[in-house]
């Protein structure tokens, strides 16, 4: 229980900071609607019974005051409708605004290089979580917090109302509501924790596997795994159905429990008020009032049912989202280097989540502003990892790294289902078509794009479908060229291009770079030849650092893949 509270606290805190007043007002209006509903039922019962008795004799009919109770009934009826209407507007508006703020905060966090790198590795899973978890949190306020506040207030109000009739009856009813109804909610909530979590995981697996099945159909068919993938989808579906069954069973048990608790409360109240009436302690109208108040008393507790059933899912969502709400969780912004340097590494160790020290092992190196560096070495040695470190996507596990703001062209740049223009403007939202054409020309793509029927307005499919692999690579390069950062990090920028195109692109790239610093990770001679310094990595360390004009520089170039 304490663990659950600890998990929920950061989320509740954010809710409070964002829309505390509206959320409190919503809960207040909800409580008012409940009180007015109970009052309406009780007073109507009293009034109908009292007027029936008053009508028995002419004398009592004349003196019976119909105006005050009927005004009260009207007040409760209008009050209940108004409070219910206001509550719906206020609570839903506040919830949607809180969730929008939460979404914005999370998306901003995920857009930072370090987080984005993590997102790119597991996009489907993380995106499901981001959207579904945020949605799941709306039940925290609407279905857990508000009903809980209203239910506790209802218990309090019933105790007071019935105490006017008989203090023991009031006390018993209040105690019954708190112990039995709160207890039932608690037990149902606990029982639903595991199936709720299982349902969320199964739903995630079902979606991810279905997407893999659709997106990877050809590959799965080629390797004969189509049937296995279908089985995996069916298995996730079975787990989802099983979790749904479990939740439905708990829901039915909870519904039966609430119904029983309500009937027992009503029966006990009936017996007590019947006895009190027989004793002459209370009249029939008061008995009717008490019965109807008891009848209305369990309704707010039953409203908690849905929230308690979804509590497992809500808790899981909060657990996954809460760490990203901490101010320090978001962003590792890489430090800035000393003046005159594009980057500085001092005994830098870095790697990925599972082993943060394993890839780069104690690199010490600095590049002066305007320097052009090629990083070479066997496949898998950590060239791209070095670029990721400089781009601030991963952090040093030991030592230090400082770098100027950088734009990075990765080996697999993402292109979007948008126009060519839209894809380019991601890097420079205000760039006009002339500037976009300039970047395309530098990347050697302007003729290809102008040859398309809609030019810059041509829409690309998913992942840039509609252009060849080499064209996509150059489009990604053109997008990088639009980034006005002092350092460009290029990972095999002309891989996949024919030698002539590649050479022309590199020439224009060198010109477009101007005074910028460049770091190029490569296996290809023509790309490394752009640099005035070559760094050879092996075993996670620098094994050679050579300057243009030296024999070692030429020897390193000669070891690379010819054009
Ligand atoms: N996102 C990642 N998560 C975990 N490990 C990774 C990740 N990216 C790379 N690695 C691992 O880090 C090591 C270095 O990879 P990196 O991509 O930096 O090598 P590289 O020198 O650029 O290789 P290549 O020349 O083939 O592009 C590899 O063993 C790889 O498996």
Automatic annotation (TrEMBL):
Residue spans crossing the bilayer: 21-40, 46-68, 140-165, 171-193, 253-276, 282-303
Record carries keyword Chloroplast: no
GO molecular function, one term: ATP hydrolysis activity
Family: Belongs to the ABC transporter superfamily.
One GO CC annotation: plasma membrane
Compartment(s) of residence: Cell membrane
BP GO terms, sorted: cell redox homeostasis; glutathione transmembrane transport
Name this polypeptide is given: ATP-binding protein/permease protein cydC
Domain ABC transmembrane type-1: 24-313
Topology versus the membrane: Multi-pass membrane protein
């Amino acid at each position: 229980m304490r663990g659950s509270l600890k998990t929920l606290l950061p989320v509740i805190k954010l809710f409070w900071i964002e829309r505390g007043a509206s959320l409190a007002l919503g809960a207040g209006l909800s409580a008012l609607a409940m009180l007015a509903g109970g009052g309406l039922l009780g007073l109507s019962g009293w009034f109908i019974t009292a007027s029936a008795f008053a009508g028995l004799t002419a004398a009592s009919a004349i003196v019976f005051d119909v105006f005050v109770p009927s005004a009260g009934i009207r007040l409760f009826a209008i009050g209940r409708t108004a409070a219910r209407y206001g509550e719906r507007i206020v609570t839903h508006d506040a919830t949607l605004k809180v969730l929008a703020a939460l979404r914005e905060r999370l998306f901003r966090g995920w857009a930072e290089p370090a987080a984005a790198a993590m997102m790119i590795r597991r996009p489907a899973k993380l995106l499901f979580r981001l959207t579904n978890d945020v949605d799941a949190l709306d039940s925290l306020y609407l279905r857990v917090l508000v009903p809980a506040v209203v239910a506790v207030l209802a218990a309090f109000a019933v105790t007071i109302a019935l105490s006017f009739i008989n203090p023991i009856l009031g006390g018993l009813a209040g105690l019954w509501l708190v112990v039995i109804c709160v207890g039932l909610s608690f037990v149902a909530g606990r029982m639903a924790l595991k199936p709720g979590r299982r349902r969320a995981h199964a739903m995630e697996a079902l979606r991810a596997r279905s997407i893999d099945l659709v997106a990877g159909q050809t590959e799965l068919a080629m390797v004969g795994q189509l049937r296995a993938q279908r089985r995996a989808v069916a298995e996730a579906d079975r787990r989802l159905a099983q979790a749904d069954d479990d939740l439905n069973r708990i829901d039915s048990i909870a519904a039966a429990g609430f119904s029983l608790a309500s009937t027992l409360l009503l029966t006990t109240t009936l017996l007590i008020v019947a006895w009190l009436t027989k004793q002459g302690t209370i009249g029939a109208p008061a008995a009717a009032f008490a019965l109807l108040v008891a009848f209305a008393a369990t309704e707010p507790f039953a409203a908690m049912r849905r929230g308690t059933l979804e509590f497992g899912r809500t808790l899981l969502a909060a657990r996954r989202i809460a760490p990203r709400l901490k101010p320090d969780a978001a962003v590792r912004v890489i430090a800035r280097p000393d003046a005159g340097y594009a980057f500085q590494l001092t005994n830098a160790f870095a790697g990925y989540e599972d082993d943060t020290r394993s890839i780069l092992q104690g690199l010490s190196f600095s590049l002066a502003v305007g320097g052009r560096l090629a990083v070479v070495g066997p496949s898998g040695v950590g060239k791209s990892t070095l670029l990721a470190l400089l781009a601030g996507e991963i952090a040093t596990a030991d030592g230090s790294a400082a770098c100027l703001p950088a734009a990075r062209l990765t080996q697999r740049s993402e292109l979007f289902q948008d126009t060519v223009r839209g894809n380019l403007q991601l890097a420079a939202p205000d760039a006009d078509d002339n500037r976009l054409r300039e970047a395309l020309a530098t990347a050697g793509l302007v003729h290809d794009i102008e040859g398309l029927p809609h030019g810059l307005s041509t829409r690309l499919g998913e992942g840039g479908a509609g252009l060849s692999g080499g064209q996509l690579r150059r489009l990604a390069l053109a997008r990088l060229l639009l980034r006005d950062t002092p350092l460009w990090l290029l990972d095999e920028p002309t891989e996949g291009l024919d030698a002539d195109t590649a050479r022309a692109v590199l020439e224009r790239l060198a010109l477009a770079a101007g005074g910028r610093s460049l770091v190029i990770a490569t296996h290809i001679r023509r790309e490394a030849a752009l640099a005035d310094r070559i760094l050879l990595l092996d075993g996670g360390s620098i094994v050679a650092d050579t300057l243009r004009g030296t024999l070692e520089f030429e020897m390193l170039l000669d070891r690379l893949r010819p054009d």
